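Priority: medium. Attachment 1 of 2:
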């Protein structure tokens, strides 16, 4: 669940309604076809995704193929319509129960106290853009229909700014060498 939320980035209500048939271990990836947000009453409201853009196939990083296979073998409900993620006693997971488990796991791996499960969507967007994804790419991956929504989830830190500057530096050096292959002018200007 954490992997698909972080590397997808899928919404919690989309994860709650994923079925075994939604998983493709060969690509690897998952289909988001429906959602099941948990209402304040505790009832799950199974239905359509947040928008039409939410219906999508999320291609996941190749290293997750093994994890998807294991999850299907060990944890998912049996049968093609079996839930991919189940809670205690084999029932659909509950926000309250999951929240307690999330906080314990988060603390165990040393993540900040205020880091919410939903923050993994921010992680997913940021990882996608750092890998070179365009704004449209991140919108498709996250099932968003507006640029404004997509931009809320993208972050840039000092490390990323160094990577951007290094990329610009490398590009300019290549262009300078094309202008003056001997490098004489480049040395004088440095």
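Attachment 2 of 2:
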């Amino acid at each position: 669940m954490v992997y698909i939320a972080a590397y997808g980035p899928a919404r919690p209500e989309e994860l709650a309604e994923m079925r075994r048939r939604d998983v493709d271990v060969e690509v690897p990836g998952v289909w988001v076809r429906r959602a099941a947000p948990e209402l304040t009453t505790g009832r799950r409201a199974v239905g359509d995704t947040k928008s039409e853009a939410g219906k999508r196939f999320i291609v996941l990083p190749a290293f997750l193929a093994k994890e998807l296979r294991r999850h299907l073998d060990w944890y998912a409900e049996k049968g093609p319509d079996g839930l991919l993620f189940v809670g205690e006693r084999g029932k659909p997971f509950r926000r309250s129960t999951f929240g307690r488990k999330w906080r314990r796991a988060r603390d165990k791996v040393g993540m900040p106290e205020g880091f919410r499960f939903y923050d993994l969507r921010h992680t997913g967007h940021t990882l996608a853009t750092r890998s070179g994804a365009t704004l449209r790419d991140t919108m498709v991956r996250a099932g968003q229909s507006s640029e404004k929504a997509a931009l809320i989830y993208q972050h840039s830190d000092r490390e990323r700014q160094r990577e951007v500057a290094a990329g610009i530096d490398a590009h300019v050096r290549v262009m300078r060498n094309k202008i003056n292959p001997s490098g004489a002018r480049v040395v004088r200007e440095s």
